[in-house]
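[step 3/7] inverse_fold.run input=structure_tokens len=767
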């Protein structure tokens, strides 16, 4: 833990007291989104101290030229920047002819932020004393509409406390923005058109290179004591990329003045005429009105929470943590558009670039399958199917593979590889396995096999072809090996025979071959269509099987463990507990050379294999490997604590499971890795959900049935969650004395509780 200023609360993220040192961290933590767009919790008014300005639109990116010391074949052509979008939230404010700026006020008191996760809004309030002696109270509420997802709403209220005040509001929209990660302050937006109305304005701009067109808009209303006073702007200032209106008003001491600002984006991904679309959005929002839009927001979030909430009784910090994670996941992706995906920072920052990593398949799909309609998870699978041709091009053009072998990108926006580190781009190839596993996991959970003959089998064939060609035969070992890889532990590069990579390569080939046979017997028309399309023969499948059947797995018979890679035991095996705390995190304190030679593990690697393929190994094997590898794991990836929490729970190491759960659930709230100001770790938040449902709840799907083996941390009085399993809603409630299963509807559901079949109807209680 590196920070502890967020107040414990069951439903809200709360900060009290103004501290300039916390501004950038809070901008991340209080971010809001609605699946289509999002923004950091930047102040609407001027703030002259350090800040990280960021607003983002789903699917919009810039292909920044990859720069290396020298070019080599296979390097990705560009790095996909997540673009800071034009600013619509800005409102410069003058009070008695002095600019409001919390950095220059003589006093700021009663400062408070609240992110209300239950209702989906962000609120900031404070009292300030300006240099001219005017004292004011400010309350600002902002939300991004879930129903009208191209619009956001701000209500900015000012109450003079010690004298009457002349208040000048200067709302603006500005496309002259740069990225926090811009190399030379370069701009990525080309202004196209500015349009001004009576109280509304529009700036249309497009991205350089990719030519995404975006109209950024605003509509302003000036209020006195919550009544529209029908003020028109006194002046309108505009440039090629910015429009700013000026509204002057006088308000008596103790009375409340406000500006109500509607803003947002319409994009060419969805509209041929973005300006006309923006005008329609404003009309719809104005007709609804602020109160109705807010009420609709509250109701929309209530529907989301009805299915996705996890309750924890007796541990407020744990409760706050899981709800923060669930809230951010739903702000980032709602499953409405199969062209979109779940970026690792969501709408909270720019780090990493791209919108899609293997995190989606390995961590996020289970959450979306269980808390939403199965179509949402199917959309995520369809996203990869739609990019299969790009994956085949990637393997062919960058690696020299042939015959339809597919390597999915490590990072992508549109199916092309856009990660610019060779040891990741070329070598962290296990991501192919996660994509294949997600297809299996989707079918296993939903029972919907139709996706495989319709789309999934082509993906599985491309991936199997990749593994067949990527493996090589070792005469010395008389087995197939996979050389020059990076496993999930990115603190080892260019190593040979990463256990997880080799294991999932074998599994992918075996699974693809099984599905080809199954589709052949049950969907003969699809089987014929697909095999003709990809020119697959029985002889080629047999060649795949040779690789799978004779795959090499590094082991230590002495220790009774699988080796993370061939040379792991050659390292100086000093456990993490003996590492000086001043050296942590090692990725910020050590040279990369030293990190790569160390035994320290960034995240679950061998244990990732045990997580995916738990039934393939005995409990004793899990325990030996867990005890060995956890002792060297520094958990400097957000994806690490959740897997360890789940496996610690399996092994009845409940204190450890609870500690890991707190770390994954409060990773950003408590800033464990000293980087939250760069944005939140969105995709790993799905792992927090897994830590409770799969870890403490012990939920598994075996032989088309749900299995539960629930456990409860001693710190909790009880917990509960809901899942949508094959269109049946099951609620599971656990306390120290009993487990309760409740099924919505009249249809019974057979589950397995601690190894024993149970028929769950309306209500089943088990001691």
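[step 3/7] decode complete -> sequence:
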């Amino acid at each position: 833990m590196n920070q502890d200023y967020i107040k414990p609360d069951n439903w809200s993220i709360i900060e009290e007291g103004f501290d300039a040192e916390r501004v950038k961290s809070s901008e991340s933590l209080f971010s809001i989104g609605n699946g289509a767009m999002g923004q950091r919790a930047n102040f609407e008014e001027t703030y002259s101290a350090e800040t990280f300005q960021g607003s983002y639109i789903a699917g919009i990116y810039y292909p920044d030229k990859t720069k290396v010391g020298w070019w080599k074949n296979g390097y990705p052509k560009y790095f996909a920047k997540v673009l800071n979008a034009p600013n619509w939230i800005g409102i410069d404010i003058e009070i008695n002819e002095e600019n409001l700026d919390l950095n220059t006020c003589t006093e700021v008191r009663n400062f408070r932020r609240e992110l209300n996760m239950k209702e989906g809004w962000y609120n900031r309030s404070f009292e300030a004393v300006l240099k001219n002696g005017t004292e004011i109270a400010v309350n600002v509420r902002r939300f991004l509409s879930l129903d009208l997802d191209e619009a956001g709403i701000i209500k900015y209220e000012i109450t003079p406390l010690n004298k009457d005040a002349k208040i000048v509001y200067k709302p603006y929209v500005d496309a002259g923005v740069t990225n926090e990660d811009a190399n030379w302050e370069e701009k990525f937006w080309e202004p196209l058109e500015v349009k001004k109305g009576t109280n509304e304005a529009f700036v249309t701009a497009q991205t350089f290179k990719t030519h995404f067109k975006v109209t950024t808009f605003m509509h302003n209303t000036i209020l006195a004591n919550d009544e529209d006073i029908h003020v028109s702007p006194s002046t309108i200032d505009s440039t090629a990329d910015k429009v700013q209106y000026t509204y002057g008003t006088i308000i008596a001491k103790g009375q409340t003045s406000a500006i109500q600002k509607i803003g947002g984006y319409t994009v060419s991904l969805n509209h041929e005429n973005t300006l006309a679309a923006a005008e329609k959005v404003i009309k719809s929002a104005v007709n609804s009105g602020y109160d109705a839009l807010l009420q609709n927001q509250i109701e929309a979030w209530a529907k989301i929470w009805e299915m996705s909430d996890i309750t924890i009784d007796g541990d407020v910090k744990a409760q706050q943590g899981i709800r923060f994670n669930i809230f951010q996941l739903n702000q980032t992706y709602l499953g409405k558009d199969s062209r979109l995906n779940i970026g690792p920072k969501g709408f909270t920052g720019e780090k990493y670039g791209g919108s899609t990593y293997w995190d989606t398949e390995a961590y996020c799909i289970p959450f979306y399958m269980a808390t939403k309609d199965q179509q949402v998870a199917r959309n995520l699978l369809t996203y990869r199917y739609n990019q299969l041709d790009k994956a085949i091009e990637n393997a062919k053009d960058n690696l020299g593979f042939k015959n339809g072998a597919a390597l999915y990108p490590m990072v992508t926006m549109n199916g092309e590889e856009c990660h610019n580190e060779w040891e990741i781009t070329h070598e962290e190839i296990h991501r192919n396995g996660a994509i294949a596993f997600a297809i299996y996991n989707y079918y296993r959970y939903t029972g919907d096999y139709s996706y495989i003959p319709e789309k999934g089998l082509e993906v599985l064939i491309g991936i199997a072809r990749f593994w067949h060609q990527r493996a090589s035969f070792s005469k010395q070992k008389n087995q197939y090996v996979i050389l020059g890889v990076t496993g999930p532990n990115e603190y080892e590069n260019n190593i040979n025979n990463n256990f997880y990579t080799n294991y999932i390569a074998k599994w992918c080939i075996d699974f693809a071959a099984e599905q080809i046979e199954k589709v052949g017997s049950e969907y003969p028309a699809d089987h014929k269509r697909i095999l003709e399309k990809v020119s697959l023969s029985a002889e080629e499948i047999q060649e795949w099987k040779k690789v799978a059947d004779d795959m090499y797995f590094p082991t230590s018979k002495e220790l009774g463990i699988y080796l993370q890679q061939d040379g792991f035991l050659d390292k100086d095996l000093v456990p993490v507990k003996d590492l000086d705390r001043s050296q942590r995190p090692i990725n910020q304190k050590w040279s990369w050379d030293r990190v790569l030679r160390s035994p320290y593990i960034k995240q679950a690697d061998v244990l990732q294999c045990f997580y995916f393929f738990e039934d393939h190994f005995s409990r004793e094997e899990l325990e030996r490997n867990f005890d060995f590898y956890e002792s060297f794991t520094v958990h400097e990836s957000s994806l690490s604590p959740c897997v360890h929490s789940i496996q610690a729970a399996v092994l009845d190491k409940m204190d450890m499971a609870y500690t890991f759960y707190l770390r994954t659930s409060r990773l950003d709230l408590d800033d464990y890795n000293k980087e939250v100001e760069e944005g939140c770790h969105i995709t790993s938040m799905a792992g927090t959900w897994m830590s409770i449902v799969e870890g403490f709840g012990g939920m598994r799907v075996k032989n088309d049935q749900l299995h539960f083996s629930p456990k409860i941390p001693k710190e909790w009085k009880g917990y509960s969650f809901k899942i949508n399993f094959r269109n049946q809603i099951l609620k599971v409630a656990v306390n120290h004395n009993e487990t309760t299963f409740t099924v919505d509807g009249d249809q019974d559901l057979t589950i397995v509780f601690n190894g024993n079949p149970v028929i769950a109807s309306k209500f089943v209680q088990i001691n």
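[step 4/7] annotate
The chain is about 30% helix and 25% strand.
The mean pLDDT is 95.
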